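TOKENISED FOLD:
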Amino acid sequence: MCCLAAIMGFIGPRFGILIWYIVDPARWQLAWGAWIWPLLMSLFAPWTTIFYMLVFPGGVHGIDWLWIGIGIFFDVLSYTGGGREGARSRR
């Protein structure tokens, strides 16, 4: 069950990004310009990409940086959380 949660945590945001891109590609084109940046961001920092796309329409100002910081935090947490759990289970 834990592995299923980890897989969904890893694939879930990327699947959400894909669906969002299919539904509203104009927003993505406006936010990023070239196609390579959203592709790289969705592969390596999906939560940051989601939060950036949520705050982008009015521009990124003030409190919007907090939301992007939360996205970065979630990305770091998703990459480092499994190591702690694996080390704990080996004891």
User: Anything to note?
Assistant: The CA atoms of residues 3 and 68 lie 27 Å apart. The chain has a mean pLDDT of 85. The longest helix spans residues 64-90. The radius of gyration is 15 Å.
